[in-house]
Amino acid sequence: MKSNFSSLLLNVLKYIRNNIYSKNVGIFLIFLFLSSVFWLLNQLEENYVTSVAYPVKYTNPPPNKVFVGELPSRVKLEIEGDGFKIMEYKIGKEIMPIELDVNSYALSPNDKQGRLDYYITTNSVKTQISKQLGSSVNILDISPDSLFFEFAEQSKRKVPVKPDISYELGTQLMLKGGIELSPDSITVSGPDKIIDTIHSVKTKKEEIGVINKDFSFITGLEEIHTRVDYSTKQTRVFIPVERFTEGNLEKKINVKNEPDSIQVRTFPRNVNITYLVGLSNYDKIIPQLFKVNVNYSQVTEGKKRLDVYVEKAPEYLKSYSYSPESVDYIIEKKDD
Description:
RNA Polymerase Alpha Subunit, Chain A, domain 2; 4 domains
């Protein structure tokens, strides 16, 4: 169907070119175009009335206060002006928003369902908008007729930044310490009711892929609320990596909650711990850094074997395992 239409259109154009178009027709079309332009210019010199959505930016709330709730982003103006000016606002002109200095106006209180807010009449900002529009445009009406504001106490607090990052480590690699952020905390400010609920700020989610060496990049912070400001909006992320190796050691089993009058002996007395650790910490690993227990409560429960668990181990290990995971035991009474 599309091919048939294109073919028909080409045939029509060809017919016009061969049978209708002539030098006289071309001259006629030029004069027709020029007369249309002059007619349009003449019409644009006339005055017209139209409506324009005018952007508003709110600044300078009262001292120690911040805006809360939704504020109208635009006001509707009914304006009168010549066609040229009207066309500027109707066709693609970027309108600079009026900056409304709220604290410079007399705010009137408004008690609405037990909630105190404030308002100013839009007629009071008419002069300011008129100056920005220029003398060639006359403002006939502004709506809404009032702008309402709700304020809250300004509050600040320092909160940690938490990385929201997904990645994979290359073969035989592990994190060296942990992910480092700079800064690792920021100051958030805004309405007290919102700030009191903020305990941390996340970085923007980043999917890095496979990391085979130390990796660093700058990323932004997730926006929590439009009314909350950050002391900085980005942080540097550093992911240090290193190769790891395997080690093992023996550690004596401790009996937790053992009464003073008896002694529990386990068989075997020690467990073998196998661990993976970064090369930078390999020489630091000693048995004293581990604490391995069984619990006497399992003896009172009549269990035939006691479960072994690791209560303490170095945080910088990649992983560890131990054997055996349960042991036999006997109970001996201590001599007085």
